[in-house]
Amino acid sequence: MTPGEPIRVVMTKWGGRPHWEYDGVFLGTDQHGDWLGFPRGTFYSRPGLEFVGEFTGVVVVPAGGAAHLAAFNDRVAKAAIYVDMTTPPTWDGTTLRAVDLDLDVIKLQDGTVYVDDEDEFAEHQVAFGYPPEVVTMAERSAAAVLAAVQQGVAPYDGTAETWLRLLPVVEE
């Protein structure tokens, strides 16, 4: 893909149930992975919810097949960093696909960092029959991402600012 090329993100839940879908642009690649841009005005939709983003964000698709997608947002968004634990994301042409596994690592604008949706993850393991290896993968990924965000390890060290500057950023 080339910088500026339109891309689509299609997330599902376990069992192929639809989840978030949205369009953006391919920004480029570095040692952390492929970077995708989502300017203010991006339309996000999932069953039962849709909205137009009032914030600008970038997502890194991790190099090496890590089991998460990390979003970095401008100051307008409630969360500075929002990392979905997923199956390893894969490209299908210009469409990025991954299965959302409930757990999220979130860093709010005030610096608070936490793991979200642990209750949902526990419920869905039973309700949707997550295989043990998927449960282990999601838990390990969440623990590693939580530690990296808390310690400010790249790309959670401000690396995303370079990519955010490629998009129009909304000022407070």
From TrEMBL:
Key words of the record: Hydrolase
Pfam families, per the entry: DUF402 (PF04167)
UniProt protein name: DUF402 domain-containing protein
Keyword Hydrolase carried by entry: yes
Record-linked InterPro entries: DUF402 (IPR007295), FomD-like_sf (IPR035930), Ntdp-like (IPR050212)
Domain DUF402: 67-152
Highest rank taxon of the organism: Bacteria
Coiled-coil ranges from the UniProt annotation: none
Gene3D superfamilies (UniProt xref): FomD-like
Any GO molecular function: hydrolase activity
Organism: Nocardioides silvaticus
